[in-house]
Amino acid sequence: MFKKITLKNGLRIILVPQKSSQTVTILVLVGTGSKYEKKDISGISHFLEHMFFKGTKERPSPLDVAQTLDGVGGMYNAFTSQEYTGYFAKVASGHFNLALDWVSDIFLNSTLPEKEIEKEKGVIIEEINMNYDNPMSYIQTLWLRLLYGDQPAGWDIAGTKEVVSKMTRERLLNYRKRQYVAEKTVVAVAGNFNEKTAERALKRCFSRTKTGRPMKKPEVVEKQNSPNVLVHFRQTDQSHLCLGVRAFNLFHPKRYAQEVLAVILGGMMSSRLFQKIRTELGIAYYINTVSEVDPDTGALFTQAGLDNKNLEKGILAILDEYKRISQEKVPPRELKRAKEYIKGKTSLSLESSDARASFYAGQELLENRILTPEQIFKKIDRISQEDILELASEIFRPEKLNLALIGPFKNKEKFQKLLKRL
Questions:
Q1: What is the CATH number of domain 3-206?
Q2: Catalytic site residue 49?
Q3: Which residue is catalytic, options 37, 49, 83, 259?
């Protein structure tokens, strides 16, 4: 079970005790990310995340920040998404106080030194270059660009090299002051810890979080009435693609059926597309289908790497499976296997304190509610053959298809014709 505490300033604390664990994780999630940005500060959420490791008053240098938890073998990191930014520390349970002091210090007291900002510009630009040079990663950037175009939902989370190179301390400070406020912050502690001691310590640390009125993210505009294709020419031996559709968001009742559908199609080794594309045809090493659900957007897509000469064969094979599952009921045994896969993978992941912290904090931040694993499993169990068929027939239509592609191709018309064969 878990306990939720709301401080006077509006910050929420989630306690998730797990006495069987030998670790404890402290996670701070802030409800701001790339969807909240404007074009002239695109990437600022991600840049600010980097800067929180560059020094505080108590730990004035990046080395001081790093040595604190290195000295006890702790794990620590941060991440930025379209919806939120997170900072966490995971340590052996006996080092709870040290981890809390470290997390709260970088979150509340980072000084954002000017000289470190200038150096970090080069680091982030190299991160952008690294993502671009890795087609397995960059294809996902292109997928968002294809779906949402020139609006925050379609921009690279890291921003552009041009905007990053012009980032200033003043902009970072203003963004932090505006967005890093108590009402948009959730702190989760999961693992082996003393609840009463932790609650007192957390209240003492985070009651200092400032209040304010953060910027709201702009409404996402979605328009599509025909198949969409984005081809990024690159002289590669293997083509990388994302092929799928717009689907349902985090609050839609069909989100769980959407997750089951993705698993049936390409979420596990026994899934239809893995067996068809890799095992039967032998034309890909990796292939998987993903259901993405955010508060205001959703998608279901298959990602794969195919030999250039087998690209058309692979696309048609994926479309065939989309068509088949939208016309025929999934056999009961296959449906049950997908459900049990989701439940089993969720249970296994939640054995770790960092996954538990993320599971509970993420729900609280994005949905303003928390379902236990057991409550979610009940929703999964209720999904029927008819639910999957209805969902698949609704989303898998030619006019809703999208294909993002990296490879030695320049003509997108032939791929648009392929999509119409669904």
A1: 3.30.830.10
A2: yes
A3: 49
